[in-house]
From TrEMBL:
InterPro entries: Aminotrans_II_pyridoxalP_BS (IPR001917), Aminotransferase_I/II_large (IPR004839), AON_synthase_class-II (IPR050087), AONS_Archaea/Proteobacteria (IPR004723), AONS_Proteobacteria (IPR022834), PyrdxlP-dep_Trfase (IPR015424), PyrdxlP-dep_Trfase_major (IPR015421), PyrdxlP-dep_Trfase_small (IPR015422). The lineage of its organism: Bacteria, Pseudomonadati, Pseudomonadota, Gammaproteobacteria, Methylococcales. This is 8-amino-7-oxononanoate synthase. Keywords: Acyltransferase, Biotin biosynthesis, Pyridoxal phosphate, Transferase. It holds the Pfam family Aminotran_1_2. The gene is bioF. Its EC number is 2.3.1.47. Pyridoxal 5'-phosphate binds at residues 104-105, 174, 202, 231. It comes from Methylomarinum roseum. Its cofactor is pyridoxal 5'-phosphate.
Length: 381
């Protein structure tokens, strides 16, 4: 279709998306068009994207390694900084090895298409992140989606297949904030000799006693969940992603994951910055505790105001509105009061389930949450 007509259609449907230009650093306060906004839309959950120790590790890394990595990891782009970060991520997640990818999107499409092919089957939660769904389609395996977080439906779809089966799920659902029922899923995987892969983009750094994510939260082992993917651009506050697992899994990905093999390695300085942020994640549990406290305070306040919340115990607290245009109107009303909350619409969420996605950071203070609640109280839809 012609792009002009398509754009007009997106605007008409309330699905047109606008970028806002941020002046200066990420953080709780950001400046947009000369106005100061309190930011409740970032995935920088632990407040590390602009932490002085992380910034200085990036600067020192650039002094030492330069900016560009020069090539893919398999050519000459794999530096001692990348290597050290991989070892630290393996230790952090309690796995034999970890492998860096340039982004989470690339990790997911690369891993799924390396692990399964035409004669296999991939089962995915309906609400999985787009990169997991795209990975499933790209793999050319038989592709089935089961109902959201529904182990009974998953079991039905696993039964009676003679193919090798890969079950793929978000750990924390990015637009709902709820957790996948992983203990039940791990049991099903074992009963059906299927492999379980978890994308823990929103759990790494945030969940588990030491921040090792949703698997630590549930106490699940590498044997139960052989493929763990995590991102570095959210809880860890930097950029990139990793996959952690057995020696052979990682070795296979190095050989066969096309989005690993055929792309330039992330800058080594970013790996250095991530090493610094990983240290903070491991040694400052107060950041996780504060996130819990802020989310809880928000939940109580927002439900008293009559807003419809989803059942989320994470740092992602969506307010379900339904209609896309009303969701935009609500987010604009918040912007006018100085609060930035993302309006999430289809295709990111299913039709009729548009929402405000409120996310918290360990750098928010109670007064920020109270201010947001006051702003929400002033909105009439
Ligand atoms: N998986 C999930 C669940 C995500 O939310 C995201 C980021 N939105 C990704 C993967 C992609 O990660 P990245 O931004 O590093 O490409």
């Amino acid at each position: 279709m012609n792009p002009t007509e398509r754009l007009a259609q997106l605007k008409e449907q309330g699905l047109y998306r606008r970028r806002r230009v941020i002046e200066g650093a990420q953080g709780i306060e950001v400046w947009v068009d000369g106005e100061r906004l309190i930011n409740f839309s970032s995935n920088d959950y632990l407040g590390l994207a602009n932490h002085p120790a992380v910034v200085s590790a990036l600067k020192n890394g650039a002094e030492r390694y330069g900016v560009g990595s020069g090539s893919a990891h398999l050519i000459c782009g794999h530096s001692s900084a990348h290597h050290a970060l991989e070892e630290e991520l393996a230790d952090f997640t309690g796995r034999r090895r970890a492998l860096l990818f340039s982004t989470g999107y690339m990790a997911n499409i690369g891993v799924i298409s390396a692990l399964v092919g035409r004669s296999d089957k991939v089962l995915e939660d309906r609400l999985n992140h787009a990169s997991l769904l795209d990975g499933g389609l790209l793999s050319r395996a038989q592709f089935q989606r089961y109902r959201h977080a529904d182990s009974a439906d998953l079991e039905d779809k696993l039964s009676g297949s003679s193919r090798r089966q890969l079950i793929v799920t978000d750990g924390v659902f990015s637009m709902d904030g709820d957790l996948a029922p992983l203990p039940a899923m791990a049991k099903l995987a074992e009963e059906h000799q299927a492999t379980l892969m978890v994308d823990d983009a929103h759990g790494i750094g945030v969940l588990g006693d030491h921040g090792a994510g949703v698997l630590q939260h549930f106490g699940l082992s590498q044997q139960q969940v052989p493929v763990l993917m995590g991102t570095l651009g959210k809880g860890l506050g930097t950029f990139g992603a990793f996959v952690a697992g057995s020696e052979d899994l990682i070795e296979l990905l190095i050989q066969q994951a096309r989005s690993y093999v055929f792309t330039t390695a992330m800058p080594a300085a970013v790996a250095e910055a991530t090493r610094a942020s990983l240290k903070i994640v491991r040694t400052e549990p107060w950041r996780r505790e504060k996130l819990q406290m802020l989310s809880q305070r928000f939940r109580e306040g927002a439900s008293q105001l009559g807003w419809r919340l989803l059942d989320s115990a994470s740092a992602i607290q969506p307010i379900l509105i339904g209609d896309s245009r009303q969701t935009i109107a609500a987010s604009e009303a918040l912007l006018r009061q100085g609060y930035w909350v993302g309006a999430i619409r289809p295709p990111t969420v299913p039709q009729g389930q548009a929402r405000l996605r409120v996310t918290f950071s360990a750098n928010h203070q109670q007064q920020h949450v109270d201010g947001l609640l006051t702003a929400l109280a002033a909105i009439k839809l």
